[in-house]
Fold each of these.
Amino acid sequence: MTTRDAAAPPPSSDDAPASGDAPSGEGPASRHERVADAAIGLLAERGMRGLTHRAVDEAAGLPQGSTSNYARTRAALLEAAIRRLAVREGRVLTPAEMPDGSEPGGLAEAVARAMHRHLTDHRALLVARYELALEATRRPELRECYDRTGLNAFAEPLRAMLTAAGSPDPERHARSMMSWCDGVMFTYTAGTHQGTTPDEGELRAGVEELLAGMLGGPARGNRPAQRSR
């Protein structure tokens, strides 16, 4: 991996509230949520080394020692960040935008929209997730929390939607879809195409091609040429 591959863009103001306020679009955050949100922001901005209880107190605008009251150990703080991250990622799409999966076109549109919003408005969430994923490879107890949270928040709903769409092997197809989405978002967030962003139509075309292979239908092949920077 090159130096450019390892670099990550700075978090946007919406993703990493420095004052401990709730992220844009949410109501007033509880103190526990402020702690977890501040931890996510620090992970995206400073990396794992920059995440300390004192730094979280400062970023959340809380009295010194507050973070320790909610997450006494570093492991507890990381687990709180993982759980909160799943909640915030789950709000990237509104309930009205979530498909039931019965129409492959609706599923492709929702997946592409969620990916595009992550890449444009919520990059800090992606960067924080990559930091946590790497740390989980070194901490078995964190890996269990990371995997369980991802399964409940993303894998099971996607598997249900693929089942409704007619997938003959929804469990395997859900793994393939998640792997494809993760790979694309990593490439444009911290990989070889960091600094560019595919538009929503391009992402949808890719999802449609993947679904066509899974479900046996033709891909539409929408190919908007423009990429925003």
Note: The CA atoms of residues 8 and 74 lie 23 Å apart.
Amino acid sequence: MDASVLEKLEGRIASLERRVKGDLADQDQSLVERLTIIDRKINSAIQDEDNLGILKRTDALHTLLDPSLEHNIGVDSCTKLALVEANMDRIEEAKQLLEQMESSRKVLESAHIKTVPTYSGKLASLSEAQAEQVTQAEALTRQTMNMFETYNRMMSDIDRKFAVWDQRLAAAEEMLKAKEGAA
């Protein structure tokens, strides 16, 4: 072969390797070398007589995993009935949900529900108004709590002052009684 043809082939192989392996694969081993190693391993596995039994079991496994096998193997009516009875609560629940959905279909298909998107602007303004009102209510709650605290402090101070004045008045009354009794 011509050297330029070999270079073109090597370039195409290198391009294919870059596409298959990408940037993440190691650059030490080419794709062709790796495929050759895999081919040798497969051939040696097939040639080994012990592995032939495993390969036969693999074929059996493939037939068991085939989805069409369910249709080929007939399930008797007793088994089907047992499956239905075992899942009866799920079936009943699904039936009730379907009936509920069917009964509410008229409401869901009504003109009122279909016009809901036209009210999105009004809903947005109402949501903003509600958020402002919640903020105002929280501020009023804080103000009210502060007023109650102030009221409680004032009442406590007045209560203490009345107690002091009551003691002074009682002491003055005793002094008057003592003076009148002495006179």
Note: DSSP finds nine helices and no strands in the chain.
Amino acid sequence: MRQVGVSEGILQTCYQFSLTARLAPKWNVVSGWLVQGMEFLSTGRSHAVVLEVGVTRTEITLSVRVSRINFNFLQVSDMEVSVSTLGAFLSDPRGVIRETSIYQNRCVLLPNLTVGYVFSANHQLPSSPEFPTYDSIRLHWKKQHGMILPEKQGLFFQIFFKSNSRTFFR
């Protein structure tokens, strides 16, 4: 057998990947943080850690930074819509706020903290062949991101991502 050398960088990457993979799905990667639990999206808060692996020629080190994080879920009031538009929307269970009424439409979405732009808010799930029901959205998030959305559906925001020109519903 021939011995093959491995660089410290490759070994560090392998350790980091293996450690993260072993912690899943009890810990989810969110923009470099490992967030505890699959249901943190339901509660809006959780414990989180940043794990950093260091590899030198003679040792392997593990650095752990611990924190408690809180997520503020997007609210209609965050979009700076007019008082009259907000009142009409809240009083009508079929109400929709369109892009032209949204003054602050920039938002950041999990799990990668991707910047998106809200172009509508709805009380009911907008029709979409990709996600015909709220359960299909929940299933997508569980399979794709390992995260469990709340059972109770709330408001739906249509989000536009400039990077790939796709629309995705929350």
Note: The longest strand covers residues 45-55.
Amino acid sequence: MQPYVRGQIYLGLDKVMKDALYLHYRAFRLYAPVGLHLLKAAGALEEGGLFLCELSEERQEGYFRLLTTVRENYRGDMLFRMPERKPRKWKGVLSVMEYAMNLEKELDLAVRILYTQASNTGKSELCDLLRTHFLEGEQKVLEQMQAHLGTVRSLEAKKKQSQRVQYSLKPKDEGQQESVASNEPLCLPIFRTSAQLNLQPQDNSADD
């Protein structure tokens, strides 16, 4: 069901508000399944999975805070269209985490742009909302996301090194038949971002 609101929120803020809403929507729909996947993997990835699950809840809360603000200030008719649910195949955990990192950076930038424009147009209530619930602690979130991405990269590097060693110890015909687990596609209910936001997943397969 598409979020339905009425009218224009603040003159000059419609586009950046939409961007912030879309990014929060995509974030909480992405982080939850990725987090659960990492929790099932356990080991060194378990902490990252818990972090993403908690961050998904925060992004969902932020999305509904923004949507409530929009609904309370709109007059007229406007429909906020969200992308349809389409599962995508990713090259592996690393490609998903890199996409999540880029998404979080775009989300932070969108909120900061919204805050700047709201400040320039004298929307003090919106500024207070963004500063209190969105901007505070965002730098820490980015640092944690980067740390967990580093963990995944380190594990992928060790896995590839181990596979190269095993390959060198096997007879040539057996080694050629060996499948690399890290290259197996990872299918998650992740949603394609709009071209306007310039967020593209690492998967090079053709769009649906």
Note: The chain has a mean pLDDT of 75.
